[in-house]
Amino acid sequence: MAIDLSVYRASEREQARIRDLFGLTPKKRINALDIGARDGFLSILLAERFSHVVALDVDEPDVIHPRVEPVKGNASRLAFEDGSFDLVICAEVLEHIPTRLLPDACREISRVPRQVVVIGVPYKQDLRCGRPTCRACDRPNPAWDRINSFDETRPRELFGAFQACRFSFVGKNNNRTNAVSAALLDFAGNPYGTYAQEEACVHCGAKLQPPAERSLLQKGAARLAFILNNFQRAYMQHGANLMHARFDKSAP
After folding, report:
1. Domain with 167 in it
2. What's the structural domain count of the chain?
3. What letters, b where the CB count within 10 A reaches 16 and e where it falls short, cover 40-63?
4. What is the pLDDT of residues 110-122, one digit of tens each?
5. Are 113 and 88 within 8 A, CB to CB?
6. What is the CATH number of the domain that holds 185?
7. What is the pLDDT of residues 147-181, one digit of tens each?
8. CA–CA distance from 210 to each of 130, 155, 190, 191 (Å)?
9. 40-89, pLDDT tens digit by residue?
10. Are strands 242-248 and 50-57 parallel, antiparallel or unpaired?
11. What's the Cα-to-Cα distance from 51 to each of 48, 54, 128, rounded to whole Å?
């Protein structure tokens, strides 16, 4: 089931994300690169600050704006010269890049800006939560195809070429599980997984489908996992939902 982007963009959660990202973004520069532009929403907002914005995604974004150039491309092989942009923004993309390609993508993202990179990622996401099981290969998948988890340390390591950085945090989240609950849900076929996601199985490429039938034992395992997770969350503090970071090639 595809996400209704008009509803999603109007939500308070999304509006808070945009406000925070743009709080880290420089103003009145010449050009910017928006990596993972999708529908071009951020690119069009960036065009209010920049004379020219390149909206890049694995499929060419369907966006029409006089100052936005839609481009098909790959974050790990950017077809731009060194220092081509005043700003590179990469929001909610790095968590989806295969782990083996993540260092390459971050080196490319570091190469093409003259000065500033702004990134946005989920903060300390528990990758065991909400995962679906592929019915074709019987293997669990990351929820919403989010393969990588980030804290404050990991971006510093991945963007080590930059001298200065600033972090900000958005929203609240206590979506955490534990090894016992995760194992129980895997046994149960992960009936509460994110089967509405558009992404296919990361292992075999099949479309993800919810389980049609489950045994009484599987239903009991899922129920026990649900109880254990609720008990755990009752004693957990909320953390941030998203982390944004600005990296500068020279200290301000």
Report:
1. 5-248
2. 1
3. bbbbbbbbebbebbbbbbeeebeb
4. 999 999 999 999 9
5. yes
6. 3.40.50.150
7. 999 999 999 999 988 887 899 999 999 999 999 99
8. 12, 34, 8, 6
9. 999 999 999 999 999 999 999 999 999 999 999 999 999 999 999 999 99
10. unpaired
11. 8, 10, 42
